[in-house]
Amino acid sequence: MKKKISDIFAAYDPGLGRARQSAQLRCMRRPVDGDHNIYRPDADYHTSELPLKPAAVLIPLVDRTGGMTVLLTKRAQHLKTHSGQVSFPGGKCEPEDADAMTTALRETEEEVGIAQSHIKILGAMEDYETVTGYVITPVVGIISPDYRLFLDEGEVEEAFELPLDYILNEENHELQSRVWNEQERHYYVLMNDKHHVWGATAAMLVRFAKLVNGTLS
Questions:
Q1: For residues 94 and 40, which has the higher predicted lDDT (pLDDT)?
Q2: Which of the residue ranges 5-9, 58-62, 186-190 would you say has the lowest mean pLDDT?
Q3: How far, in whole angstroms, is CA 7 from its chain's centroid?
Q4: Which of 1, 159, 164, 215 is the most exposed place for a label (fewest CB within 10 A)?
């Protein structure tokens, strides 16, 4: 699986072109994929004006002998936004960040303590736009299984791994909906016994799974 995913991204993001995009470029370009085409599939709409707020996350693949996993975090309960939600390590781009890859690696080290030298970047997925006006670049990297966590308790309550096989199984990609502000909104959900992954994080995992499975349209 490790070689398969590496080969896919060598072709999908040659030379790490997407991973090395600057914040200035990304914030002025409207992504094709995002909350806007999941939350309201019946309408072509955007909730935010350009420029968008650039951010990046790491999709960390852990290369375990029993099968690859994806490392995820649960945000601290006291945070003002998205408290308690499952997310990737990552955050907004800082002025000193050269590109999306730099942001994803920096934020991963700050949030969970995994040094950049222990992560091999394979490439990046296409940008994802959220209803809150962020443009998120999902950067994909492989981490050796002997990593050690040092959680920033101000941001992260816990970190855990989900089996990659579970994520790649498209039967686990559930599209749910609820009425919000008198409109029906749709969102992806991946659930297991302990953790509830939904929203933008789930949507990016769904897109990653479709790319690996060869079903991405």
A1: 94
A2: 186-190
A3: 20
A4: 215
Cα distance between residue 28 and residue 47, in whole Å: 15
- Cα three-residue angle 70-144-127, rounded to 5 degrees: 45
- Cα separation of 99 and 82, whole Å? 25
Cα 200 versus chain centre, distance: 7
Residue type, 112: V
Asked, for residue 212, whether it belongs to a domain, the answer is: no
Q: Take residue 35 and report the two structure tokens written for it.
A: 């909350």
CA 141 vs. chain centroid, Å, equals 11
Q: How many CA atoms lie within 13 A of 103 on its CB side?
A: 29
Kindly tell me if the per-residue pLDDT of 17 is higher than 90.
yes
pLDDT in tens, 121-159: 999 999 999 988 999 999 999 998 989 999 887 878 889
Question: Which CATH number do you get for residue 36?
Answer: 3.90.79.10
211 located within any domain: no
Domain membership of residue 25 (yes or no) is yes
